[in-house]
User: Fold histidine kinase from Anaeromyxobacter oryzae.
Amino acid sequence: MRTDSDGRMFSDWTDHDGMPLPGHREIEREELSRLFGRLVWARLFVLPVLAGIALWMASVERTPWRRAVLLGVVPFTVVFFVGEWVRYRRHGFVARAVPLNLALAALAHLVVCFCTGGLDSPLVYVVLPIAILTAVFVRAPWHLLTIAAQAAALWGFAALGASGAVSLNPTAFGGGARLGGPPAYLWVHVLVLTTVLVMVGFAGRSMRRAFEATVHRALAAQQESLRAHAERAEELIALSGEIAHELKNPLASVKGLAGLLATSVPDGKGTERLAVLRREVDRMQSILDEFLNFSRPLVPLALGETDVGALCAEVAALHEGMAREHGAEIVVRAGSVPVRCDPRKVKQVLINLVQNALDVTPRGGVVELEAAPAGGGAAIRVLDRGRGLDPALADAVFTPGVTSKPSGSGLGLTIARSLARQHGGDLALRPRAGGGTVAELSLPARPSETGGRAA
Assistant:
């Protein structure tokens, strides 16, 4: 076991390559939180019983020191138990709370045993569940130190009882040195109790190791399954990309032949049908281009200082003709916003977003491009007044193949988000107040240059 920078307890689970297995921290934290919550609630039910017994014993006790200790332990225990319950309700689980609670429980238990008869105390056997919980949830070597301290205290109780130097038997149990028989009984009793204590500690550690091994095997099997699935997916994407690439050449031939036929066919139905054929070939080529972009691995970033405000103006100029065809207008609201990025890829994302916005903008509508500094980087927004984001799709629009367009491929937004995240940023869609959609591209101040090259 080890602790992270916050003192939380985590297991050193790694796969066969020595890499940490993802998920084990979350599993451990979830299970510890669930168990700790149950313990916090259970203590509130036993608290009145224990406090009542302690107060009764203090009320009849004649020895001042024992009465003082009992009257001190009761309010401390009540305040601690209730405080932990309130803290858990407000702030949830904190991993360091488990060893802290168990250490205080062990200390308080030994103090109460000392005040209620030492080795003859009816509460002495509570040492066993505390030991097993410590062995299960407290990392080495602290669980060994806790169990060793418990065993040492038990032998100390036996020595005090055998010597009769201190009256361990409280007034409520008749007073005197002790309740049991001859000193030999005490030594046999403490030997058996210590043996059971060690066995319980060993059993607790064995349970913890079994739990860790089970989760480790499950996570390793999951990782292996995901690795095999990823390899298979890469093979299928590569194969699909090859097929798409091979289809582009025949489509180009079909488009060229259709153009040649159009020059020799008189105006009429034949010309219209050839025009439809050429448009459909163009659409198929566009889909194949998007699929090829999706199937290819992302090439490294060509990073350089770029004014994304100027980039927005350039994209708007490229789409003036398309906007005129849709009866719409493109408005750019962006000053100079320098940021380090790959301008070609950012431009590709903006082209996709502007085309999507124009497709849904009604005649007479306006598509707006905004760019502003944000967190040292930049935030670029494309706003439209279309029908808005379909709530049934939500974030699924970034999933390959998901689209609301009758003729869409469902790959444009997937590629756009991949390019944004390659920069260390993101792409998000959200409803626009008053109707429409806001597509926001965020770019960080210093994009990751892993695998990239400086421009």
Q: What stands out?
A: The first helix runs from residue 24 to 60. Strands lie at 2-3, 9-10, 302-307, 329-334, 338-341, 366-374, 377-384, 426-431, 437-443, 453-454. Confidence is low (pLDDT under 50) at residues 1-20, 450-455. The chain has three domains: 2-226, 238-295, 302-454.
